[in-house]
Amino acid sequence: GCTDVDGVLGPSESTTCTFTKYHAGDAGDEFTNTVTVVATDDDGAEVGGESNEVTVSLADAAAVPLTIVKTDETVGLVYEPGGTFSYKVVITNNSTVDTATIASITDSEAGALTGCTDVDGVLGPSESTTCTFTKYHAGDAGDEFKNTVTVVATDDDGAEVGGESNEVTVTLAD
Q: What does the pLDDT look like over 43-65, one tens digit per residue?
């Protein structure tokens, strides 16, 4: 709105108008605008005009790291001399604006992971993918196997958003 509510300006009077406009796009996109005033004086002559140009640009949203949560999904105990453990990792893109493109998902014990629920490796804002896999561990009762999952990923602005999961430890039973 404008400060002069009746729309009539006396000699040497002015008014200030403020407004907002929503702009959508990518970081660096620019929007240029002007304000046009249509007005006549008390003799009926046109006295309106156009303001100077103002250019605004969109700033880049800060990169938001993926959340990577690994869990042991093994049902029951796995006894010595060894057996198969089941794991699940959930990778979530916590950004509300940027997509994340996953280049690789690697478990420290099982190696490269494939077969995740998001087959194209692209997570939209707030999307997740789940990977399930198994790994055979051999050894004696009480042997522990610690492992993590590392994700290499970038957002749509090229920022690194990957990372490493929590550590999961599994143990062979007697």
A: 999 999 999 999 999 887 889 99
Quick check: 120 and 74 in contact, CB under 8 A? no
Cα Rg of the chain (Å, integer)? 30
Residues 145/115/91/88 CA torsion (nearest 10 deg): -40
Q: In this structure, what are the phi and psi dihedrals at residue 36, rounded to the nearest 5 degrees?
A: -110, 130
Confidence class for position 112, pLDDT limits 50, 70, 90: very high
Quote the tokens at residue 115. Answer: 């077969």
| β-pairing verdict for 144-147 and 168-171 | antiparallel
Two tokens, residue 148: 């993590």
